[in-house]
Design brief:
29% of the residues lie in helices and 17% in strands. It folds into three domains: 84 residues; 225 residues, no CATH class; 80 residues, no CATH class. The chain contains 14 helices and 19 strands. A hairpin with a 5-residue loop joins strand 7 and strand 8. It is α/β, with parallel strands linked by helices. The model has no long low-confidence stretch (mean pLDDT 89). The two termini are 37 Å apart.
């Protein structure tokens, strides 16, 4: 933006001086006027070259001092964006603040009000091995159908990494070990007890124990499965030490749960989880805070101790932890960072404060196809059909574990994915739209100027799954860069993946992305390309290469 402002000044100055020279030489003495004009232009160019060099030197010194300048804030002269920079809210003044320009908010009907419905319960729960990337399709299951388990008892482990134990989220009877293709383990299902029983864990002295003892405790207790590692978004390796650990305290995805509401009453467990994470990294624990609202986020977040905080303001995907990592400490091929969600941090803290694996979750049931969107208190892996029983509108609907952009389609007999705290219901787009985009349409969420609804960003839409077109030629449009607030060229990266160009994939920043980061690009894609699927193929390819 600053470069564009400089070019604008240069062009304007050149035209102005040219007109001035002509005005001073009405008699046709053009050579003298031209000489004066060219001399003035040379002086201006030299001036702006000196300014540009000075800017670069200032930024180099800032980096040497450990000061981040992702937005190009340090300069001798103000840039164009400095005149229109987002005003920092009073509650964030004096702290690190990142204002993001790219992105797009999709406002949908069906937001859950901030009230928990205590009457909605699930009876069955499942832990699904496919939720844990990097695990073999057939892990070693240590329980049988008919076995009785307590919450926190071991269910299975990966044969290639036996140290990490995956545990039961609830107590009850194991009623099924369901298999998928090639006899892979799809899910271990538990019929929950009415009164929950927990495997009691030994007391652990966090202050006087070593990191190795802490790691062993988490591996056995089930806490390790809460940690995800980037690049590749896999379960963290217990043999690695992360450069930093990142937690986003807000979610900007459509109909996402309000984490300020979710964390109410769990502040102590959240802080304990942060203390645990502080012992696992050689760097810092970073909290990404929401700078979009008029009021400050929950004190649980703003008053958290032992962490570094950074405020983010902007449209979706500003709440994605990957976007926040990019603007704080970008991932390199040689760096490893870990991430967690807010409710995973709470579960981690409960291992130490409550001495049990408390897999409780506040889940948002959202979507316009529900009679009553709501929050419910349940546990990891709850049966979605049981949570939605009696609440679905008539008609053909799609159930999604997660949000509409990056969630996973499931059936009424399906279960919430391990890391999801939202279920979304939307109308199945199995109907034909007469004349498609040719007709004026205010009811379709889109970033395309071909649809008049895109010109009213605050419009709330009733979503369906209609793609509004078929897959087309993968053409360069520049749309993705407007959706992703990262210094990455997503379209070039996708083409590098499709051509199996490993060097280009690495150079174009594949290590910084996971599926949720390009989900909005996929929504905006004119070519209707499955970008999340393409990206996962590329990540798996790079991971296999080591």
């Amino acid at each position: 933006m600053r470069k564009g402002f400089t070019r604008l000044i240069l062009i304007t100055s050149f035209l102005f001086l040219q007109q001035l020279a002509q005005a001073q030489n009405p008699g046709g003495d053009g050579m003298k006027g031209l000489s004066v004009t060219l001399l003035a232009v040379v002086v201006l160019i030299a001036f702006f070259v000196i300014i540009q060099v000075a800017d670069n030197l200032v930024r180099i010194e800032a980096r040497k001092s450990g000061v981040d300048d992702q937005e190009g804030r340090f300069s001798v002269l103000p840039g164009f964006r400095d005149f229109f920079r987002r005003k920092i809210p009073a509650y964030a003044e004096g702290a690190r603040f990142v204002s993001l320009k790219a992105g797009h908010n999709i406002n949908l009907e069906g937001q859950a009000p901030a009230v928990i419905d205590a009457g909605t319960k699930a009876a069955t729960f499942a832990v699904q091995p496919p939720n844990f990337r990097g695990m073999l399709p057939i892990p070693k299951v240590v329980v049988e159908v008919g076995s009785t388990v307590k919450a926190g008892d071991h269910l299975f482990f990966d044969k290639t990494n036996e140290a990490v134990k995956y545990v039961a989220p609830v107590s009850g009877e194991v009623i099924a070990v369901n298999r998928g293709e090639r006899r892979s383990i799809r899910e271990v299902v538990i019929l929950a007890d009415r009164e929950q029983q927990y495997r009691q864990l030994p007391a652990f002295d966090l202050e006087y124990s070593s990191r190795e003892e802490l790691v062993n405790f988490l591996l056995d207790s089930g806490g390790w499965s809460l940690l995800r590692q980037r690049p590749f978004d896999v379960v963290a390796s217990h043999t690695d030490v992360p450069e930093n650990i990142f937690i986003s305290t807000f979610d900007t995805a459509p109909l996402a749960p309000d984490l300020n509401f979710v964390v109410q009453g769990r502040g102590a467990a959240f802080q304990k989880g942060l203390d645990v994470l502080g012992k696992l990294t050689k760097g810092k624990v970073w909290l990404g805070l929401d700078g979009n609202g008029q009021n400050a986020p929950s004190p649980v977040f703003t008053q958290a101790k032992g962490v570094e905080k950074c405020w983010f303001a902007g449209k979706h995907p500003a709440g994605n932890v990957g976007v926040q990592i990019h603007h704080v400490a970008p991932i390199t091929p040689k760096s490893i960072v870990w991430t967690l969600g807010v409710q995973e941090v709470i579960t981690l803290g409960a291992l130490f404060s409550e001495r049990c694996f408390n897999a409780e979750r506040i889940v948002a049931l959202t979507g316009a196809e529900l009679h009553e969107p709501k929050y419910v208190r349940t546990s990891i892996g709850a049966n979605i059909g049981e949570l939605l029983k009696g609440n679905l509108a008539e008609g053909n609907v799609r159930l999604v574990s997660g949000d509409v952009l990056s969630g996973e389609k499931t059936a009424s007999a399906g279960y919430l994915n391990f890391y999801d705290d939202q279920a979304t219901v939307l109308a199945e787009g199995d109907f034909h739209e007469l004349f498609g985009w040719l007709l004026p349409d205010l009811a379709t969420p889109s970033v395309s100027k071909a649809l008049s609804g895109s010109r009213f960003p605050d419009t709330v839409y009733r979503a369906n799954t209609n793609m509004h077109g078929e897959p087309r030629a993968f053409v360069i449009t520049g749309q993705y860069e407007e959706m992703l607030p990262m210094d990455i060229y997503p379209q070039h990266l996708m083409k590098a993946i499709l051509t199996n160009d490993y060097e280009k994939m690495e150079g174009l920043g594949i290590y910084e992305l996971i599926e949720e980061d390009v989900a909005l690009c996929e929504f905006a894609c004119t070519s209707k390309q499955p970008l999340q699927q393409i990206l996962r193929t590329g990540l798996d390819m790079m991971n296999e290469q080591g």
